[in-house]
Amino acid sequence: MSNPVDEFNVYRSKMNGKLLADNNKIIKRIFNLDTNAYSEGVLDVKTKEFLGLVASAVLRCDDCVKYHLESCYKHGATKEEVMETLSIATLVGGTIVIPHLRRAYEYWEQLELQEG
User: Fold this and answer.
1) CA-CA distance, 94 to 49, in Å (whole number)?
2) Domain containing 69: what range?
3) How many helices (H) and strands (E) does the chain have?
4) Residues 76, 114 contacting (CB under 8 angstroms)
5) What is the mean pLDDT of residues 9-29?
6) Which CATH number characterizes residue 48's domain?
7) What's the pTM?
8) In the predicted model, what is the mean pLDDT of residues 14-34?
9) Which long-range contacts (CB under 8 A, 24 or more apart) does 105-112 make?
10) What's the domain count of the chain?
């Protein structure tokens, strides 16, 4: 049985590599801006990842939600913190966000299973 977290990361890494190998200056700058935006600053990284998670859920981007969930997990977020963050996203985005909330919950469970 395959692991959804590993599948996502392998695919993301492979495709990011292909995109960056095309040497498109604009795409490279966008990737760089994204990396720098989520680095330590006045706000800590975990807080920035929570913000990214809310925006991703409201915009209904499952890949983005997975990415930010994993980053939240790596930066020590608890399930309770993540669910509170996703509750704000659902409030802001409305009921159309609920399917993404379900998939986010399922992905968080997969992240927890990887550790155990």
Assistant:
1) 21
2) 4-115
3) 6, 0
4) no
5) 96
6) 1.20.1290.10
7) 0.92
8) 96
9) 107/4, 107/5, 107/65, 107/66, 107/69, 108/69, 108/73, 108/79, 108/82, 110/3, 110/4, 110/5, 111/5, 111/69, 111/70, 111/73, 112/79
10) 1
Q: What is the DSSP letter of 3?
A: -
pLDDT digits (tens, 9 = 90+) for 51-91: 999 999 999 999 999 999 999 999 999 999 999 999 999 99
Distance CA(114)–CA(23), nearest Å, equals 34
Cβ neighbours of 105 (radius 10 Å): 14
Rounded to a whole number of angstroms, the distance between the first and last alpha carbons of the chain is 16
Q: Which pair of structure tokens corresponds to residue 23?
A: 């040497």
State how far the Cα of 54 lies from the Cα of 35, in Å rounded to an integer: 17
The token pair at 16 is 């990011």
95, amino acid identity: T
